[in-house]
Amino acid sequence: MSSGPGELVVITGGHRVDHEAVAAMTDDIAGRLGWSVVRMAHPDAIGALAARTERPAWQGAVLLYDLPGLDLRRGAEPTPVGPDAEARRVLGALLRAGRGIVALHHALAGWPAWDGWAEALGGRFLYAPGTVRGVPTSASGYRMATYRVEVLASDHPVCAGIEAFTVEDELYRCAVFDDDVLALLGTDASIDAHEMIDTYGEVRHGRVGPAGAGPGSSLVGWASAAGASPIVYLLPGHGPSTLGHPVFRRLLTNACLWVSGEQARAWATQRARPVPS
Which residues are within 8 A (CB) of 141 and not within 5 positions of it... i.e. 6 or more apart? Predict the structure, then answer.
């Protein structure tokens, strides 16, 4: 599978990841696509991203495996930080230019003080009680589980050649804007609040208790849009077992290829979603 010359821009930072597993996965995906890999990490990623955002002939996709805008330390209050004016400018330019974005796993918690970023991604994972679309919302929940990923849109390019597969990964109970995204993948695994760990209690107090009664969704993969940018979010991706899973790698390859193409940009433009302010 090849889309011609391009770059897979991989952004990490703000959350602990297995960099060796990430490198192996992204090298494999870029090789399948005939792309090169460019790695960036916060806090320097915004500056490094700016040059590519403003380059008219740039081709490829941006893979977000990051958690920006949150001071996250065990035993301390999860504290939103930014984005500052430059981050908003660069990310806004990225979306206006129609750059394709694929966001993985914990990236759904990024920029918690920026409501518009949640609208762009199609949902929000909260590390502390906050608001989602103006509604007070408890902190999100999570649990490790072996669960089955079901294909909901077999005719969509992201799901091409993908059949149901099983992962041992982290499930979330968090806000997903089901009515505003294009459902691609789901699961019948339980996301009952009583089976989930409360993220805030675990991070702030080391207390492993049930999650609050905030919103949840059975979707584990979807497409959204902001400005002219097509965006795909995939919930699996917690650790090496999923990052090395052959079906997951094909799924991620499909997603990167789709968001980089004209068809996806046309789809995003037709949805007329605003660039977050």
Answer: 172, 173, 174, 191, 193, 196, 197, 198, 199, 210, 211, 212, 214, 216
User: How many CA atoms are closer than 13 Å to the CA of 89, on its beta-carbon side?
Assistant: 7
Q: Where are the domains of the chain?
A: 7-271
- Residue 68, classed as helix, strand or coil, is coil
Q: Which residues pair with 135 in a beta bridge?
A: 132
Q: Which residues of the chain have pLDDT under 70?
A: 1-4, 56-57
Report the C-alpha gap between 251 and 159 in whole angstroms: 6
CA distance 112 to 82: 9
Q: Which two tokens stand for residue 24?
A: 């192996």
pLDDT at 183: 98
Domain 7-271 homologous superfamily, CATH: Class I glutamine amidotransferase (GATase) domain (3.40.50.880)
Query: In the block, which residue shows the tokens 């590519």?
Result: 52
| Locus of tokens 């969509």 | 156
Tell me which residue of 94, 230, 227, 242 sits closest to 168, measured CA to CA: 242
3-state helix, strand, coil in the chain (%, to 5): 35, 30, 40
Residue 75 C-beta-side C-alpha neighbours within 13 Å = 0
How far is 104 from 213, CA to CA, in rounded Å?
24
Quick one: pLDDT at residue 56? 67
The pLDDT of residue 214 is 85
Query: SS3 sequence, 207-241?
Result: CCCECCCCCCCCEEEEEEEECCEEEEEECCCCCHH
Structure tokens at 269: 């433009």
pLDDT for 2: 46
How much is the pTM?
Answer: 0.96
**Cα(185)–Cα(123) distance, integer angstroms:** 15
